[in-house]
Amino acid sequence: MKKIDQLHQCKWMIILCLVILLEIFEKLLSILLPSQGIVYHIFDIFYSLAKIMLLLFLLGLIYKTTKELRQSKQKLNSIFDTLDVAIWSHDLKSDILLITQGIEKLYGRSLNEFYQDHNLWKKVIFPEDRYVLDEREQKLLAGEPVTSVYRIIRPDGEVRWIQDRGIPKLDENGAFVDFTSVLFDITDRKESEDRYRSLVEMSPDIIAVISNEKIDYINEAGCKLVGASRPDEIIGQSIFKFTDPKEINYIRKLIQDIFDKKSTKRFEFQVFGLDGHSIEVEMSTMPIQYEGRRAIQIVGRDITERKRAEKTIHKMAFYDALTGLPNRNKLRQHLNKLLTNPGNQMLAVLFLDLDRFKIINDTKGHSTGDLLLQKVAKRLKSAVPSDGLVSRLGGDEFIILIEDIDKKKVTEIAKRILDAFHAPIEIDQQEFFVTPSIGISIYPTDGEDEETLIKYADTAMYLAKERGKNNFQFYSSNLDDLTSRKMEIENGLRKALEQNQLMLHYQPQVELATGKIVGVEALIRWKHHELGMISPSEFIPLAEETGLIVPLGKWVLREACEQNKAWQNSGLPPIPIAVNISVRQFQDEQFVDFIMNTLDQVGLDPHYLELEITESIMQNIEKSTIILNQLKELGVKLSIDDFGTGYSSLSYLKHLPIDKLKIDKSFVDDIIHHMNQGAIVKTIIDMGHNLQYTVIAEGIEKEEQVKFLRENSCKIGQGYFFSKPLPPEKMLELIKSEHDFKLLNSYCATNLDIAENGTNS
């Protein structure tokens, strides 16, 4: 900018010099040449032309400069118009007032109203806030910038918060000659602060802030805790006034540790009230910045943890814990919202399944499979436009929803997704090649509701697999006549029970404190006569979809009960056997009668049957509560399986007759793989204890996980660290051997070879 200004100055200096030289040249001509000579006239003509050209050049330069100034002014006005801010500039000497257009948005009044009444901005200030004007005026007269915060009343009665930054200008005599004010609407921020402040003040939790070993803030609940009637009786007091003098060095060390590690600490501590009585408090502490200095925030342990847990679980309901992608619930919510008001736009649903993933997962283990899915999720997000929704349906299935699209555009996106998987995925210095098979359905051509669109995209995906995998296919009506693996599995599943293709394997549940087997979980396996071993993750969803889960579930229940009874008859000490129950089974009107009749026919004590249900039963809480209470009256044990992957309202959960909570494997993996280092697991364990539930962690594969769970009082564990699912005869041998799993590191390492039959479910 400085160089440009210098060039402009040089240009005008050159023009001025030219004018002066022309004048001198004219004088010299008049002296040296006769005024009537032809030479004089020729030079006079050239001189006149030079002056005309110079004049034209000057006019052009003036026009260009005027145009540039006008454009700069327009740009400046455009910038002011786009900003959610108003600028008020008042030259007190000339009484010239400049106000930007933004003031109309802030105050809800026209620009002319402010020009007509220069004091209008003061008149609309909320009466209780007008005291700021005196302080503001004093600082401005002293030449000091001042920031004022006050409320205004708009013409429609709405009250808004304004932040007003005033910048004065004084002349050499100290007189106030110019004033500029920048105004922002901070209503949202103030209301958020007020909401937070009211929550803190009205909270039943003890909330306090300490710094320099003194109390800077404490809420009403904290005051009541120590017997004070008002916060000012405590604020400013030394924290050691409320502690045992013997603990001073320990407290100082603890405070330093909190600042050094910059992390949350939870501990039990004894404090003393003003009257000297002692109080046992469970505290959570964390370092913060308070009024510009480092401080520690303290929250007393009470119902707050439940509230936080409920919010965390609610969030889990809409996002996949492993990949962070939206899950099935979020996808359906978003898709149904679009279908409610679709307008004229076309929508595309892409159903994506990873080829060869199950082989990698079974041979390399769930940890590798999980890392692979996380990297797949990142590639999908980078390949899909920002306005597309990438979600994980479960396992290795993903659904992508793209709005406002045509067939050509969705084809380009599908090709881009396939291209994204040309390169291998590297995990722990190993390269893995996975490719996607993609099925596509289009709204409204293929369907007009969420279920149909997903179903048809799924059908098209199976066609993509049949055609060699690693490709995409659009749904068409003739797909209904094609034979696919899905159809073959469905048909085979109907015959599997009759042809004795199904079997149960059993995985031990181990008491972490002692290493003793305290229960087993029955897990179904299917060996197809042509397709070989079929993963439960492949046929169970299909059984759910077709309704075959009900007869399948009855077979599993009876088989598990008979096996447990057989073990007891062989002399084994009785232990409960856990069986997974689907929502479809649970909704069966004859479900409770079937359980009762099965136990009676088999002769199994109900206490040794445990039913694992999912959080999805909360969708019909009234009916679910009745059924659960009936089962509880029978003496059957009840547990919530995969806890945290669905949505459970704690206000309902605490009233249900539940005995156990099973922490889902994805959260157990977080103990060593996720940045939160098991915070969610700790939250679920604490919540389970508060609700008087036994907590089981499933999917344990590492010794570090066992250590963490034991340290955080998790009672029971299950997973490949202890044993893979075993056939009945192998399970019998394991139970008879009375192994202590604390001493079985070599055995556990062997069991981590997941390449053999089965998965961790």
From TrEMBL:
The chain crosses the membrane at residues 12-33, 45-63. Residues 486-739 form the EAL domain. Gene3D superfamilies: 3.30.70.270, EAL domain (3.20.20.450), PAS domain (3.30.450.20). SMART domains: EAL, GGDEF, PAC, PAS. Pfam families: EAL, GGDEF, PAS_3, PAS_9. It comes from Bacillus methanolicus (strain MGA3 / ATCC 53907). It comes from the Bacteria. Residues 72-144, 192-262 form the PAS domain. Residues 345-477 form the GGDEF domain. Keywords: Membrane, Transmembrane, Transmembrane helix. Residues 146-198, 265-315 form the PAC domain. This is Diguanylate cyclase/phosphodiesterase with PAS/PAC sensor(S).
